[in-house]
Amino acid sequence: MQKNTQLILVAVFLCAYMKISAQDNFNFQAILLDSVLTKNADAIVRSEAVEIVINSMSSVSVRTRRAVTVLNKSGEQYADKLERYDPLIKINKLQVTIYDAVGKEIKKYKKKDFEDRSVYDGSSLAGDDRYKYIEYIPTKYPYTLVFESEVDRSSTAFIQSWMPIIGSGHSVQKSTYKIINSSGVPLRSKEINFKNFSIEKYTTDQEISYTMSNVPVISYEVYSPSYLNTAPIAMVALSEFSLQGVDGIGEDWKTFGKWQYDYLVAGRDQLSEKTIKKVTQLVADANSDKEKAKRIYKYVQDKTRYISIQLGIGGWMPMMAADVDRLGYGDCKALTNYTKALLDSQDITSYYTVVYAGERKRNIQKEFASMQGNHVILNIPDEEEDIWLECTSQTTPFNFIGDFTDDRDVLVIKPEGGEIKHTKKYEPEESTLDTKATVILSEDRSISAVVEMQSKGIQYSHRYHEELKPLKDQKQHYKKYWSYINDMNIDSIELSNDREDILFREKLKINATNYITKAGNRLLLIPNMFNREDTNLPKYADRKRPLVISRGFVDTDEYLITIPEGYDVSLPEKKTIETDFGSFSSQLEKVNDTQLQFKRVLKINDGVYAKEEYETYRTFRQQIKKIDKSKIVLKQLQ
Amino acid sequence: MGNLNQIIIGVILVVSTGIYGQNYKFGKVSKEELLETAYSLDSSASAAVLYEDRKVEFVFNQTENSFDLVTEVFKRVKFYKKEGFKHATNRISLYKKKSKEEEFKGLKGVTYTLVNGNVIETKLKKEGIFKNEIHENRDEVRFTMPSLKEGCVVEYKYKIISPYVFNIDRLYLQYEIPIKKLEVSFESPEYFNFKKFTTGYLPISLKESSKNGKITFVSKSRTTNNNVSQTNYNSNDLDYKINTYSISSSDVPAFKEEPFSGNPSNYLSSIVFELSYTAYPNSPVKSYATTWENVAKTIYERSSFGKELKKITYYKEDIDQLLAGISNEFVKTQKVFEFVKKKMTWNKRNSVYTRDGVKKAYQNGTGNAAEINLMLTSMLSYARVDANPVLVNTADRLFHLFPTLDGFNYVIARVKLPDGSIQYLDATDKYGEPNVLPDRVIRGTARVIAKNGTSQDIQLRPQKPSVNNYRILCEIDEQGFVKGKFNVIHLDYLAHDFRVAYGNKKDVDNASRIQKEYEINELETYTIKGMQEYGKGVSERFDFVTEDQVELIEDEMFFSPLLFLKDKENVFKSDERKYPVDFGYGFSNKYMINIKIPEGYEVVESPVAGVFKLPDNMGAFTYQSNYVNGMIQLVVDETINASLIPAEQYPVIKEFYNMLIEKEGEQVVLKKI
Question: Superkingdom, according to UniProt (chain B) (predicted)?
Answer without folding.
Answer: Bacteria
